[in-house]
Specification:
- The protein is of the alpha/beta class and 318 residues long.
- 32% of the residues lie in helices and 21% in strands.
- α2 links the parallel β1 and β2.
- α2 packs across α9 and α5 crosses α8.
Amino acid sequence: MEGGKDADCIIEVWGFQQQGFLGTDSRNCFPARFTELSVLGAEEQRMHELYRFIDTQVQDAAMNMAIDEAVHTHHLRGDVPPTLRVFRWEQPSISLGRFQSVEREIESERCQQLGVALVRRPTGGRAVYHRDEFTYSIVIGKRYGVPAGVVAAYTYLALGLLAALQDLGVRAELSDERVSKHPSAACFASSTQADLTSGGFKLVGSAQVWKDDALLQQGSLPLDDRAAEFFSMLRYPNEEVREEALALYREKTTPLHTFAPTASWEDVAAAFRSGFSTALRAEFAPGELSASEWELARQLVEEKYSKLEWRKEKVRLV
């Protein structure tokens, strides 16, 4: 994990390095034993509560990250329920993992030439290209039944991702690969135990960060292949190495439209709402951001997400 010195301050799931997943249950594509997680804890409470589903439409890169933090902060205060958000990007954008080095890994001038925005995520992991893809985030806490710990929390929420893909007609499973000791700058260049795969190809990559008793998880599902464009903006020693990395990437990942060619962005959004509602046994009802969330998001854009240098801010490990 880049910036390992800060490992006591952040939980990284987008390419995390812990082990211990079990196999899958062939009857429903959900990990064996993980299905038990959805019926443990505060189930009775969840069955009677409405969670929130929000589509914030098109926003710029900084605002998209600021909204996620604003929702997380308001959830920690008890002001808003668990929230599943889907969103789009005003322009093609690359979101960087919290500890990634722009200088070492990104061709900033190339990004400017292509009109691609750069923004740093509050979560860890590697770079993600947001063009012709579906982006989601979810904010939820322990009081709503989320188990403590990176592996347990991720696998609990993976039930929603698996159900969403199943609704789209895609059979997926949790990756059983271990994280590479020499990861690519690109998130989707390799699968780890934090990711969902189908037919051996990585489909969904996600990242997670905790504050106190609540987490923020962000994830991306590519819809179409933009790999060559993406890799032209990543820094490599020479073009031969770049081409080798791109070829490896294409061996390991494929977009959703390979398996569900007619699925629209709206279809995916509906599947995510349905999938998470089913898996977490709670209805994600359509809602909107509060005035207070918008106000905090605008403040965070100005003070934080419009810059790339804020990454040393501390987050308490749970």
